[in-house]
Amino acid sequence: MSPVELTEIIRNISLAVSAPAGAGIAWRGLASWRDEKKWMRDTELAQNLLVALFERRDAVGGVRNTFISMSYDSLNDDVKQYQETCELYGKRLVPLTDARKKFYQYGNEARALWGDDLNALLKPIISLEADLLVVIDEHLQRLNPKADEEDDRDKDEKERDRSILYSRSKSDFTDQYATAVEKVEVFLREKMKL
Known about the structure:
mainly alpha
């Protein structure tokens, strides 16, 4: 066998081996690219949800702010005081509504990609926000000077409603809401990891 024939045989074997090897490397590269795209999509969605969660948390804090500013004219006028209080809560609820819409939009995408794990973690947040909205509505109804209803709640119910309505450093509502937000935050941060 001459060196030319030997070179030809080695070249043919090299070509025969390199084609499947190249296909295998390309397959691994494609799988790696696909995994990277999935990770990027999950990370971006988790980041968007985390920002929306923080906006939602801050909006709840804004609604529960204990500071209420009234005009001088309303100090001795129950009707004006009621109207200004309604307007105040209306303005405070706008950021919460916007944050909830934003979170809902991303939440639908997360449910489609990740299943219902996030929704299970959101149930306490949704429930606590619903409690807050109900307490605000009841509070405004009680403030209405045209309403005939008397406040027949006992001391414990009044304290419970105040702890929901107003932001305090130590209250059951504050603790439960912070715990629920923290659980969602941990879930989303796990989605952002490599």
